[in-house]
Amino acid sequence: MGIVTVATTPQSSLHDLDTSAEEVESAEAAEEEGDDAVRRSAGVGESSRASRHWWDRNADEYQDEHGEFLGDDRFTWCPEGLDEADARLLGPVEGKDVLEIGAGAAQCSRWLAARGARPVALDISYRQLQHSRRIDLGRGTAPIPVVQADAAVLPFADASFDLACSAYGAVPFSADTERLMREVHRVLRPGGRWVFSVTHPIRWAFPDEPGVEGLTAISSYFDRTPYVEQDEQGRATYVEHHRTLGDRVRELVAAGFRLVDLVEPEWPAGLEQEWGGWSPLRGRLIPGTAIFVTERG
What we know:
Layout: E1 4-5, E2 15-16, H1 22-26, E3 36-39, H2 44-70, H3 84-87, E4 97-101, H4 107-114, E5 118-123, H5 126-139, E6 146-148, E7 161-167, H6 177-187, E8 188-199, E9 227-230, E10 236-240, H7 245-255, E11 257-263, H8 280-283, E12 289-296
Helix pairs in contact: 2-5, 6-7
């Protein structure tokens, strides 16, 4: 079975697509060189298009740079290296139907499958999901079921999954996370867990730098204006959205979830690897990741 791509309505029919790179290569993509970084509004359509094109364009580099840290079948929640094998935030997974949102190359789904779960890996990027196929072929294992779709319009029937998870996927890039949370609630069965990690909201007050310059707050934590990289024509090529901790809790409760835990992983002793703005220096002073552990009512 190839990568499944769906239209942007929740109940659309699924259809198989060829897994060639032609669609990726033909995607409209502005060159990153010369892109301006600004804070401005960015709506649902613009954010979704920017995310799809950016991840298609940068998937190869991302997997080359971070593939060793992520592994082929490791479930890690964050750059701090908190693994689900130790944290058990999802609870028992054997025999469970699990939806991984913003799955990338489906490393987390592969870990889940090895422990008896039935995962489906969803991502907006066709190229990222092709990397999942590459890993499966290289390992000679059964392919992880993958679906290309926007997380705010999940192409699944109501109550299709026991668990849903996302490790830095989809949530930060969605302009309408209230809708995204409602969609996850819809496809989960009663009592199902929805666990996701994002950049800790407090980080939005600081420069995204791993050194000492990243230790001084220069922006308002309460400024929800999106971070946008745009080309010379003003078209967004990358968009990331900020919500405060309170915003996240309120949208989860409004969608019908109960907050079970909010995990803020500490920087572990001995980890010296930097990942973008994550570093031992910053990690030992301010939180870098927030993991929301919730249950569907």
